[in-house]
Amino acid sequence: MTRHRRLTDQERRQIVRERAKGVSVSAISRSLKVSPKTVYNVLGRGRSAVSANDSRTRVLTMRVTERDLRGFDAALARRGIAHRSDAMRCLMLAADDLLRPDEGMTDELRGLSAALNRVGNNVNQVARRLNEAKLRGERLPYTPASHAEIRDLAVLIFDMADQIQEMFRARRRALNLDVTKALAGLARPGSCQETEHGAE
Questions:
Q1: Do 16 and 49 contact (CB within 8 A), yes or no?
Q2: For the CA atoms of the chain, what is the radius of gyration?
Q3: Could you tell me which residues are beta bridge partners of residue 56?
Q4: Locate the Transposase IS30-like HTH domain: which residues (predicted)?
Q5: What's the CA gap between 123 and 173, in Å, rounded?
Q6: For residue 36, which of 56, 58, 21, 19 has the smallest C-alpha distance?
Q7: 81: Cβ–Cβ under 8 A, 6 or more apart, which residues?
Q8: Is the model's pLDDT at 157 over the cut of 60?
Q9: Would you say 114 and 160 are in contact if contact means Cβ atoms under 8 Å apart?
């Protein structure tokens, strides 16, 4: 067979499907008895390709550092996932869940910010009174109430740090669950479709 023959639509779909599964270009070209350039042409065309289930698909490219790619592959390996293209597709399908703002965390941070502003205003007033007294050469009016306000601010800051750390950990746990759900069953071909259309 010639290595420059015209591919059928079915063969083009096969190229897209197999490459998405992580099959190498050289293996695909050997399987179809065409040149690697022909395979690259199919994958690199600007126009949409037709996928195995006849829905319109596009080949996407992106630039990452070698370090980022190793980190991503290591994260996939820890989950037992072999093909990064399948993982990327599943994560794209789950983007609405993964990128949704955490409303609960937003409300909590808003409340903490308001509390910090209230105590901070009191401390600013203490500092202003001390400054004015110093400029006038008067005895500094640092009262037990002033000390209590500053102590309250310190306590609030430490409490806020603890709460923010716990919110961060909870958010990480929630995201980890969402990612796990998005990547569930990737050992099986077509699992993203199952996840996308399966029961919630």
A1: yes
A2: 29
A3: 50
A4: 4-45
A5: 36
A6: 19
A7: 87, 183, 186, 187
A8: yes
A9: no
The DSSP H or E segment spanning 9 is: helix 9-20
Residue 164, both tokens? 């923010």
Residues 30-53: pLDDT tens digits?
999 998 888 888 877 634 444 445
Give the global pTM: 0.43
The answer to whether the beta carbons of residues 66 and 60 sit under 8 Å apart is no
Q: Retrieve residue 41's tokens.
A: 């042409």
Structure-token match 């293209």, residue found:
85
Q: Are 3 and 34 in contact (CB under 8 A)?
A: yes
The beta-strand segments (E) located in the chain are: 49-50, 56-57
Q: How many angstroms separate the CA atoms of 18 and 181, rounded? A: 24
Q: Pick from 119, 112, 118: which is nearest to 166 by CA?
A: 112
Residue among 55, 82, 83, 86 at smallest CA distance from 195: 86
CATH class of 1-61: mainly alpha
Q: Name residue, tokens 């059928």.
A: 8
In terms of pLDDT, which residue wins out, 190 or 172?
172
pLDDT, tens digit, for every residue of 58-90? 777 788 899 999 999 998 888 888 788 888 888
Q: Residue type at 36?
A: P
